[in-house]
Amino acid sequence: MPAKWVQSLLKLQANDLRIRDLEQRMKLLPSEMNALKAKRDQLVASTSAAAEAAHKVEREIKSAESEIARLTDESRKLQQQSAMVKKNTEYQAMLNTVALNKNRIGKLEGDVIELLDKFEEEKARYRKIKAANDAAVKSARAEFEELIAFAGEIKQEIAKLQATRPSLVRGVDSDTLSRYNTLLKGRSGGIPLVKIENGICGNCHLRITPQAMNGIQKGVVTYCDNCQHIIYDEEASE
Predict the structure, then answer these.
(1) Three-state secondary structure call for residue 207
(2) Are the C-beta atoms of 36 and 144 separated by less than 8 Å?
(3) Quick one: which H or E segment has residue 47?
(4) pLDDT band at 19; cut points 50, 70, 90
């Protein structure tokens, strides 16, 4: 069985590594939440664009129908006025305008028929996109709520682990704890206390020196001469 200081440090390390993992997970949550928000906004914008495409065709139909009504009314008034016109040139001008209006009305009516077909297509497209996007938005919102709940769970677990840490620290001497804390907070994000296997350091993967192996066998706190990590051997007795 490893020395007592190893057992105590392993318990502290398990606690601290869990805290570190949870804190790293917390750092990723904002970007994940922002990605879900962006996805939601994109889906909503896509639905709005499809709706606007249908509304645009509808406005074109109303505009054409309004122009047909205006030209029809204009032609009706010209026909009424033509009966009272004495000059032949004015009469012919009115008839020409009525004829032009008739041609324009015919073209507009053709346009309306085509636009009505297009409007039905755009409405069907909008309904299809809306159904798919609404489902995707609902899913994204559910994921977002899950992340919020998950963040709460992580915070609770971190608080619990941090509350446990003082009792675990008491089992480690101050010098070893100082080295351990330095390694724990190092940029490499490695594991301070590592196991050796077949004489190889679990951190730097280089062979442990005879002097270090002798220290391990004696049960004293030992550091790897290559990477300075704290090392232990499960096979070494206390």
Answers:
(1) strand
(2) yes
(3) helix 4-82
(4) very high
Helix axis angle, 88-169 relative to 4-82, nearest 10°? 170
- What pLDDT was estimated at residue 1? 64
User: What's the token pair of residue 137?
Assistant: 């938005």
Residues 6+ apart with CB under 8 A from 93: none
HSE of 99, CA atoms in CB hemisphere, 13 A: 6
d(CA 72, CA 97): 11
Q: Which pair of structure tokens corresponds to residue 122?
A: 């755009």
β-sheet bridge partners, residue 197: 200
User: How confident is the model over 123-130, as a mean pLDDT?
Assistant: 98
The two structure tokens encoding residue 51: 């709706």
Judging by DSSP bridges, how do beta strands 200-201 and 222-223 pair with one another? unpaired
Q: What is the pTM of this model?
A: 0.74
Residue with tokens 């750092």: 27
Distance in angstroms (rounded) separating the CA atoms of residues 20 and 28? 13
State yes or no: pLDDT of 122 exceeds 80: yes
CB count within 10 Å of CB 201 equals 22
Residue 40 in tokens: 């939601």
At which residue do the structure tokens 């204009």 appear?
74
Please tell me the distance from the alpha carbon of residue 136 to that of residue 131, in angstroms, as a whole number: 9
**Burial classification of residue 203, based on how many CB atoms lie within 10 Å of its CB (0-12 exposed, 13-18 middle, 19 or more buried):** buried
What is the end-to-end Cα distance of the chain in Å, rounded?
A: 6
The pLDDT of residue 17: 96
Distance CA 195, CA 234 (A): 7
CA angle 120, 126, 127 (to 5 degrees): 90
